[in-house]
């Protein structure tokens, strides 16, 4: 039982109906720097699949082919392990997008980490193996729907630990690589390829965009490249006027009509001195429409603008 829940129950329960605690004590906030940024390189990816194929040949009685297809799904879809193991034949659909047929996998509601549905497009490598996967899809138990990977999480981890040792003997250090690293690798490749942060959030299935931004925003280079236009145009520490005009266009100044200047000098336009009572307010001097370059702290009559017209 979590400590927080135990303390909460202690404020509600106790011997003879008297709670053990009068109130829940404030728990200290502990920051744990456990974010893993490890990704799979193309060379490591090739070594992993080579080790899986070697195991498949040596141990034909074990589901190594199925395990290899599962790793491919993790790398090409960015799904979590639990989501991949739950993927079934009823979740695959196809439709025409941009003149080509695209296959999608729809994760149903309450079958994802945040209980929200999402749809992921499938790569050509996955689509090429869909037929073989559908042919061997079986339910985990009687009455369940057929799934592509009828493996237990413990079995998947056991097989991956064996592959990790095989790859290590090939000269690659992947001790820090886990099955979740394949998901992180997929999302990292999408971010480095230029996918914007909102679409990346939808692909990953994050509940909050802050999670996506914290993990992958520094990998999205497209927005930062726009600053090169200003830096490349710099000359002796000053930006070219042409570049500034494009970025910050200046509105033309409208000259003040003579009648307007006369009214501004007298207050009412009829020679009557200004009345500094409640009918006057501040701020009209700062209106750029009439070319007044003041700071907006002089008094102006509290009247509609059409009273100022000639």
Explain briefly what this protein structure is:
The protein is built from 14 helices and seven strands.
Written overview of the protein:
By secondary structure, the chain is mainly alpha-helical. It has 2 domains: 178 residues, Intergrase catalytic core (hpI Integrase, Chain A); 51 residues, no CATH class. The protein has 14 helices and 7 strands. The strands form 3 sheets. Strands 1-2-3 form a 3-stranded antiparallel sheet, with no helix packed on it. It has a two-stranded antiparallel sheet with strand order 4-5. A hairpin with a 2-residue loop joins strand 1 and strand 2. The longest helix has 17 residues. It is extended. About 6% of the residues have low confidence.
Encode the helix/strand succession as letters. HHHHEEEHHHHHHHHEEHHEE
Widest beta sheet: strand line-up: 1-2-3
> Helicity, in percent?
40-55%
Low-confidence segments: 276-286, 294-300
Give the C-level CATH assignment of the largest domain: Mainly Alpha
Average pLDDT, to the nearest integer? 78
| CA radius of gyration | 33 Å
Task: Determine the strand fraction and express it as a percent band.
Answer: 5-15%
What form results from the Cα inertia axes?
extended
The name of the CATH architecture of the largest domain is: Orthogonal Bundle
Would you report the number of β strands? 7
Largest sheet: 3 strands, antiparallel
The domain count comes to 2
What is the count of helical runs? 14
The structural class is: mainly alpha
CATH level 4 superfamily of the largest domain: Intergrase catalytic core
Using the coordinates shown, work out and report the CATH topology of the largest domain: hpI Integrase, Chain A
Terminal Cα span: 80 Å
